[in-house]
Amino acid sequence: MFSNFSIKTFFTKYSKIFHKFFKNISFKVNNIFKGSKYYYLYYLLFLFVSLFLFWVNYYLLFVVYDIKKVARFDIVADKDLFITGYTYETLEKLKKISEIKEYSIDIKKTQKTLYNLDQLFLPQLSKDTNKLKYYFNELEISLILSLKNEYVEYFYNVIKGYLTVKLENGIELEDIPDVVKEINDVLDINKLSSNPKEIQKLIAYKKIILTKLPKLIEFNKIFDIQKTLELQREYLKNIPKHFEIKKGEVIVYKNSVVNNETFNIIKKMELDKKIYKTQWYYLSIYLFVILGLAIFLATFSNKLITNNEDYNYLFNFNLIFYWLMIILINFVVVIKFYFDFIYFLFPFLIFSFIIYYIIGIRLAWIYFGIILIILQVLNYLYYQNFVDISFLVPFIISAILLFVIFSNNYDEDVLTYSLFNQYFLFFILSVIVFFLFNLNNSNNVLYWVFSVIFVYVLTNFMIGYLGKGLGGISYYKVKELMDLNNELLTMLREKAPGTFNHSVRVSELCENCAKAINANPLLVKLGALYHDIGKIYNPKYFAENLDENEENPHDKIDPHLSAIIIKNHVKKGVEIAEKYRLPKKLIDFIRTHHGTTTIWYFYTKALQKTKEDKKYEVDIQDYKYDGPKPYTKEMVILMICDSIEAASRSLNNISFNSIYKLTENIINRLFNEEQFSNADITINDINTIKQEVIKYLLISFHKRVSYPAFKKT
After folding, report:
1. Vertex 383, ends 382 and 385: CA angle to 5°?
2. DSSP H or E run through 511
């Protein structure tokens, strides 16, 4: 059908466009994958999936579009066309005309049949044995002679009357057995006698007569070739030898088979070439769209997380998940041709819901937008129209309901008690929405019910594995980590009770701050709970674990050694976290909660020692944490809250001014040490955090003071 198309011509024509486009893609992809050990694997993934989708759609859109195939959309004439020849309907009429046959009634054969009948019955009535011998044997003659004449007359009159009518209409040769059978049905011997002996005779007589009839009946319906030809010529005069197609007229309706006639019309109008070019155009757009969305998705992910290790997490899950989603949606759009209800049944929301749980709400919204774009592009590519509004509008409303209802999913109480309740609320509301938009089709609502249930079941099944396998924190892992009686937190509470209490207070403070600046409250709360687990080792070397009058062991050792012990709690914390298989995101909180800050107390103490011993050398690097610096808002929140909460315990005079001054000094010190330089956090965010910290500390110290206006720095 599309033999005129040349791959070489196509790529020669568009080679410059392709070259420029792929050059830009290559530059962007190089920047995105910079630092990733899976650099070449992602190039292969892009290439493989793109070629796979190209091949699948090329085959479905072009190769199978031919005679005796079903049209996916209406094919409409784009101009008027006068065609010489016969339409399919005309050919059907011609076929019927060729089947026309005219017959005539042969009067002589009609008379011959009636004459034969008379010759059979009249000798019976006259009891003429000589003539009877021509038709019957001796036993049959004796039976006939024993019958009353009225019985014979009944048979004669019924058979003659019936044959007369049939002969008038005409009897063909092949009709004779049926005529005899009909006569058998018409003859009712029960009317003649009730005597059993007489009835037995009549039954035998009836059988004899019926065996004689086929030889007596002459077929009188003769095929008349002259009349047949005349009638066919008359009909042919009214058959047009040409026809006209008007612009806008539907040549092939959607879901109809392309036959020879419609195929020829398509060829004569050159619609095949136009359809082919259109399909190539939309297929190219589709491939450009999915590739562009993949690059956009990768770029957006690149802005979300900046350290190299998180590249692997995002690209291993995010991009592979994206391509898997594209392939599945492509498959769903294709089978919509066979199952029109598939959009209502397929759980499209599963993609956004899993991303929401594994990565976060911003990417989930992006995935939802991608689903809508891909659905629209593919639907137009295959069916030349956009997705039906009866599905599209309620689908969008349901997605908004999903995100709104689950937007407070970071609260601990919600995590513990109401995941099912929230989903049940979403289920009821979304079904109501779909019902309102599909009042005339209850099946669509039923399909949506199954789809929503499937989303819930599959999400709960998958997130437990995806979160663990990719470094994310799934819902089930969160419940385990938030349990203050789990093994690791129990160990911290028993060996370092002061540190445990400090961690709980810091987690509450961090959660408040994160909510205030629209960060991730759950993530930072978990990070705060586990940030000091390294203090399980040597707990007495940390002031919060000393009793009121207990001697501080640092008073007896060198400041440099003290600094090593203090710094070591970060390293030990990472080791413990890895041993207990904490998620990577929480381990990063342990690594970064002190950044590269200076341990000023012991550094100052060491400087004092140089005044007493001039040979004593001090290197400030020995008194700095190894880092890295915090690189997310949540990590900055933990650093600030941890530092201020720990320092607040040394305040003697608790007042708004003292807490404000302490908070201001610590944040300024961290700022001066450039601890916030790697994180995407603003001055407004830091000021908001400052307000939340002061508010929390005042409440925790049970002070009720009036708040002066905060000045933004």
Report:
1. 125
2. helix 497-516
Residue 110: other Cβ atoms inside 10 A = 19
Residue 388 tokens read as: 């039906």
483-700 in CATH: which number?
A: 1.10.3210
DSSP 218: P
- Read off the pLDDT of residues 476-518 as tens digits, 9 standing for 90 and up: 577 778 888 999 999 999 999 999 999 999 999 999 999 999 8
For 91-167, list the strands marked E by DSSP: 103-105
Contact between residue 248 and residue 80 where contact means Cβ atoms under 8 Å apart: no
**If we measure between CA atoms, which residue out of 514, 507, 519 comes closest to residue 689?**
514
List C-alpha distances in Å: 228 to 9, 92, 175, 233.
58, 19, 21, 9
Would you state the structure tokens that stand for residue 519, as one six-digit string? 């960060």
23: Cβ–Cβ under 8 A, 6 or more apart, which residues? none
What pTM was computed for the model?
0.48
List, in order, residues 6 or more apart from 2 with CB less than 8 Å away: 62, 65, 272, 273, 276
Q: What are the structure tokens assigned to 408, written together?
A: 């407070």
What residues pair up with 245 in beta bridges, in sequence order?
81
Backbone angles phi, psi at 254, to 5 degrees: -55, 135
The DSSP line for 61-76 is IIIT-STTPBPSS-EE
Extents of the domains making up the chain: 7-72+271-468, 75-101+244-268, 103-223, 483-700
Let me know: does 230 contact 97? Beta carbons within 8 Å.
Answer: no
**Separation of alpha carbons 516 and 601, rounded Å:** 32
pLDDT tens for each residue of 583-602: 888 999 999 999 999 999 89
CA-to-CA distance for 204 and 199, rounded, in angstroms?
9
Amino acid at 424: F
Q: Is 243 helix (H, G, I), strand (E, B) or coil?
A: strand
Q: What is the 3-state secondary structure (H, E, C) of 5-72?
A: CCHHHHHHHCHHHHHHHHHHHHHHHHHHCCCCCCHHHHHHHHHHHHHHHHHHHHHHHHHCCCCCCECC
- Note every long-range contact of 128-137, with CB atoms under 8 Å and residues 24 or more positions apart, other chains counting: 135/212, 136/208
* 282 touches 381 (CB < 8 A): yes
Collapse the DSSP code of 223 into the 3-class scheme (helix H, G, I; strand E, B; otherwise coil) and give the result: strand
